[in-house]
Design goal:
This protein is 34% helix and 15% strand. By secondary structure, it is of the alpha/beta class. It has a six-stranded mixed beta sheet, with helices on both faces. The longest helix has 17 residues.
Length: 207
């Protein structure tokens, strides 16, 4: 049974809760994690690299010299790839690097990522994370109490004070539960979830 302690912001244990086995304590399948990270990073690529081919280069509408009688090979345009200033041959063109992954694969990969943090004892559940005001210093002190050098913090809903307080901190990121993803879970060494965020994640992944 997957059970974790629940802490408050001062790292005082205030209770325990059971986690869904299918979400937080399933078999960690590394090939799924690999496929999902590739999928996320490929989707981020701009794919905007481009060169001009011979039809896109300006000029060259007239033959450089007549077809016969010069002793040279026939030429149709000075914008051919072998001329200086000519179009590129087989150059890159804008494209999408994204590829398709089935929804079940994405779901299984996310469960594997969450399970890897739980099984490595790198997952902490807090009852709630609140800030009286926007303060990077105060938020850094909160993270220091848990003795983490870096962490992904997942909250259940938008909270401008929390999100802005963490924005400038090194190796710290705040995500909402609906945006939790495999790449960020694996990127940060620790995972902090609010109790409400756990409920939301379990509700989404147990369907």
């Amino acid at each position: 049974m997957a059970t974790v302690s629940i802490y408050d912001q001062d790292k005082k244990q205030i209770g325990e809760r059971e986690l869904a086995e299918a979400v937080f304590n399933t078999e960690v399948k590394e090939y799924l994690l690999h496929d999902m990270v590739r999928y996320q990073l490929a989707a981020r690529r701009q794919g905007s690299a481009a060169t001009k081919n011979r039809s896109a280069v300006a000029g060259g509408g007239k033959k450089p010299y007549r077809q016969k009688g010069t002793g040279n090979a026939r030429q149709g345009t000075i914008r051919a790839p072998h001329y200086v200033g000519g179009g590129a041959a087989f150059g890159p063109s804008p494209r999408s690097y994204s590829f398709k992954l089935n929804r079940k694969v994405k779901k299984a990969a996310l469960c594997s990522a969450l399970s890897s943090r739980f099984q490595a004892d790198k997952l902490v559940v807090v009852n709630d994370i609140t800030m009286d005001k926007i303060s990077s210093k105060a938020f850094a002190q909160l993270i220091t109490r848990f003795e983490f050098e870096g962490a992904l913090i997942v909250i259940d809903q938008a909270d401008a004070k929390v999100e802005l307080s963490a924005r400038n901190l090194h190796n710290i990121k705040v995500l909402r539960a609906d945006g939790v993803n495999v790449y960020d879970i694996l990127k940060y060494p620790n995972l902090i979830l609010t109790d409400a965020a756990v409920n939301e994640i379990e509700g989404a992944l147990e369907k």
